[in-house]
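Review form for a predicted model. The reviewer records the input and the model, then writes brief findings.
Reviewer: anonymous (R2)
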Amino acid sequence: MKTAVIGYPRIGSKRELKFAIEKYLKGQIEQSELITKAKALRKINWLDQDNQKIDFISSNDFSFYDNVLDTAYLLNIIPKRYQSLDLDPLDKYFAMARGYQGKAGDVKALAMKKWFNTNYHYLVPEVEDDVQIELNGTKIFDEYQEAKDLNINTKPVIIGPYTLIKLLRFTGTLTIQDIVDDVIRVYVEIITKFNDLNAQWFEFDEPALVLDMDEADIGLFKNIYTKILKEKGAIKVLLQTYFGDIRDCYNDIMALDFDGIGLDFIEGKETLNLIKKYGFDQNKILFAGIVNGKNIWKNDYQKTIILLEEINENVNDIVISTSCSLLHVPYSLENEEKLDEKYKRHLAFAKEKLVELFQLKIISKLGTKHSYYVDNANIFNEAANRSNASVQARLASLKESDFIRQPLFDQRREIQKEKLKLPLLPTTTIGSFPQTSEVRANRRAYRKGEIDETTYCNFNHTMIQKWIKYQEEIGLDVLVHGEFERNDMVEYFGENLDGYLFTENGWVQSYGTRCVKPPVIWGDISRNHPLTVDYAVYSQSLTDKPVKGMLTGPVTMLNWSFPRVDISLKEVALQLALAIKDEVLDLEAKGIKIIQIDEAALREKLPLRKSDWQSEYLDWAIPAYRLVSSSVQADTQIHSHMCYSEFDDIIQAIEDMDSDVISFEASRSNLTLLDTLNKVKFKSEVGPGVYDIHSPRIPSVEEFETALKAMIEKIPVDKLWVNPDCGLKTRGVFETQSSLENMVTATKNIRLKLQQIKK
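Model under review:
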């Protein structure tokens, strides 16, 4: 039995790639230094896997920003606005990812969306009518050769043509059928070059195969791979799937000339049943995803060996693998010096999952009396006290009325209008302001004990004063305190709730150079003190304008943490909801009349198959949110915020959240969500993001006015809010202030024009 890894974290054990890219983008290092750093990190990754005797190690799983963007770039799917920039290839690549504003031009970035059911974001490739699909660049070949020079013969990996095509955004009149033959031709050219390089295996990643597929989808897939596999030559081809099962196309895949098929036995609910029911082509190798690539809990060898025995009854040749790329977990527990060993022994990050693969390989060969198996069993036989009696009692006492807010929305809206007296097109921001080096230094010094709490809080108060004054000066209508005390919208709250564990270096890439450090839910969740009230009350004391209380919702808290696996996600979500509900009521009692409960990750854990949406997710996710806000007074306005997902197909569920105002990311998607909101007559007031905060670009007043006019054409003006599409913590002060000032100026101009029209 051999072992395989689909992909490996590329940011480095301590985010070395992130810092190198950011220095390069700021002009602090040369491109040659960035490339040298990237090469060194790839070497470490390959050697980590080689040292654990992983048999199938990937190359081309590295990226400076995103693998989907890499694949589109490789196929020359590059819109004209980027091709026309007088920049070198790498800078043009970064312009596609981040936008560009400088001597070479002014362009927006590509749209960004969530990668299936993860918190990773991919760039959405755009296909224009004059696209010339052809091989562009040598990255995939160069990285294969790099590994080969280290005496590691990797399996090159690429986003497969079916998944790529399904992710494309067509901006003109072309359709999939117009480009499919050109896409096939380039993929064949890639395989041919790898045959020339004597590569033994080539991996196509096709996660789109776990989505709902109709006859047209299956026909497209078969057409693509029938033609590609005819030209594969001597190289062996692995079709790798993950994030679910392939129930709609299992037999179609088996009928094609793949040498290996990678199936997910973690999230693939039907994977084992499919093999038992339909069999497995014994001329193919099964790459069995049995080590979870998305969570950080140690593998239970007893359960995994039982699963492998069942698989072995139906399959001759098995390679044990990760269920998906290890991109979605932190790099290594080796960097966790402060976490108690009693917790660490239950965890496995990417590097530790390599050890698990190796040990499972040995156990499969030598049996369950081996020390690897015995030691693992001892860990799982330990009694873990994770329950809190008071939390369990609160859950048991919940009743239906706890999830329903009174009075109904229309009545609340009128009450809130009278109470708040906001102007037409009220302006606000999503929550955070720039986390400058001074802000981070203050927080770091407090954590290290270098300054006392009074000094720490005084600094934050000074920052709040500065930004409240600034917001008043530029004319924002609803203010925020800036979140200078918060490291992350989930981590901050988790640190102040009972039941969480935290890491020092458990960083996971979210997009580009943005990394998050998801907390670990260890036990029952409860709140034993107010989390945000002091700063909210202080901020409101500085102004007569409303200041929003800023909270993270229970579903996002859950989805952006590493959750427990010993109880249901529903139970964890309700525990979180009760804790956050206590905070909402405390804010309201202290006079905070607008409270934002962000659910940025609502769609993230939505099952990939629509048939599972209600029974497995929405039936508890939406009630969990409603539980948080159901007990507030009618004149307290509840906001929520969502970003970087496709919301069109769950818009009814979002309306069922019963928020008074919801802000959406919309700028990168060209406000296409507005058509859906208009079509369904969405009841809540809405704030579609008018500019992209994940890009350093500063939109002009005219650009803002154009966006606002487009919004007014789709949504009743008395239901529209004006705001950025996300928090501003990652932006610099100058670009933040310039963008907000232009946003407010444009809003005032539009208000004036509307008044003139009315007259």
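Findings: The mean pLDDT is 94.
Further findings: The longest strand covers residues 285-291.
Recommendation: see findings above.
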